[in-house]
Amino acid sequence: MVNIFTVDDPFGSGKSDLAGITAQAIKWDQSEALDRVLIGYSSTWAHNFATTSFLLAMTKKIGLIIAHRAGVMHPTAAARFFGTLDSLSGGNRVAVNLVSGSSDKDIHREGDYEDKSTRYERAAEYVEVMKSAWSEASSFDYSGTYYKAENVRFILRPQSGHVPIYMGGDSDKAVEFGSHHADMYMLWGEPMSGTRERIERVNECARKYQRTPEFSLSLRLFLAETDEAAWEKAREAERVILNAQGTNRFLRSSSTDKSVGRERQLAYANQELHDDCFWTGLVKLLGGFANSAALVGTPDRVMASLKQYTQLGVTSFLITTGVDGMYDVSLEPFLMRMKKEL
User: Fold this and answer.
1) 213 burial class (0-12, 13-18, 19+ CB within 10 angstroms)?
2) Comparison of pLDDT for 162 and 284, the residue scoring more
3) Contact criterion met (CB below 8 Å) for 298 and 277
4) Number of C-alpha atoms within 13 angstroms, CB side, residue 68?
5) How confident is the model over 277-316, as pLDDT tens digits?
6) Enclosing H/E stretch for 3
7) CA max distance for the chain
């Protein structure tokens, strides 16, 4: 049975309606299909250390994937936060999505001026320190190229002794880092051939470390009882995003964002339709921004495509829908079907 993740935005656009935010979190918790919700990271958004603590307190079972940029704080402090949060939330409800940052403008806001290659090298030490802090039975010292710490010891630890590490990326440095350290390698939506290629590349690198990471795939679904109706939903989303160009209505990658994965997404966007129902119509409009690749069609047609992805080695899907690419309760029947059939 696959794991199902999603993305939602309860604190987006400066929302402060706590009753509405709580209702949105409870909606996730009541889902019989969702396993985890990704809470993103940006230097301009509400701090997700605070928001995830609030959301976990408002819910009982939903897990959160907390995006975290290695380098914004010392890894022992980060490990202490995530370990404490895991323990206080009942265990196994927290995962860390380590991100390097594709926007120099965003990382500069927080005083980080290292280049991307260095950030990945630094992240490798970051994970090593966190894993030791979560698992070492006695106090320990650490001395590396980027971090040093003495007499590290925690009272509260993750209940299972480890907080899962999620990450994504397509550069050589990203593949090396993820192959060595990630429990879940997160892939953007790509055609079957591209997904196969990426999984094989990561697995080949992971064999050096005698590891077998799992893989998730991010897709936006446009579903309807007929293919024609599903395509009308997709084209309507395309029209809304196109008409909003020049505004801040939708998150877009800018031309200054540096990401090998973004360039790969845009390369696929030169051909809108791939395989049976894989569609890149929104990818170019959003500048290669994550999770704009979509599957469009009837539930049976989309399910057939999802089954092909699982045969390639995908064990989890990050599913969203609609013009904003967020979670919607209308997805629930199809997500439940995914749980049964995949």
Assistant:
1) buried
2) 162
3) no
4) 31
5) 999 999 988 888 768 999 999 999 999 999 999 999 999 9
6) strand 3-7
7) 63
pTM metric for this prediction: 0.94
The SS3 of residue 31 is coil
CA distance 64 to 166: 11
CB 263 within 8 A of CB 188: no
Question: In Å, what is the CA distance from 287 to each residue of 82, 107, 133, 282, 322?
Answer: 32, 19, 39, 9, 17
Per-residue 3-state assignment (H helix, E strand, C coil) for 161-222: CCCCEEECCCCHHHHHHHHHHCCEEEEECCCHHHHHHHHHHHHHHHHHHCCCCEEEEEEEEE
- Rounded Cα–Cα distance for residues 10 and 17 (Å): 9
CB–CB of 58/74 below 8 Å?
Answer: no
Residue 253 predicted with pLDDT over 60: no
HSE on the CB side for 219, CA within 13 Å? 27
What type of residue is 312? Answer: L
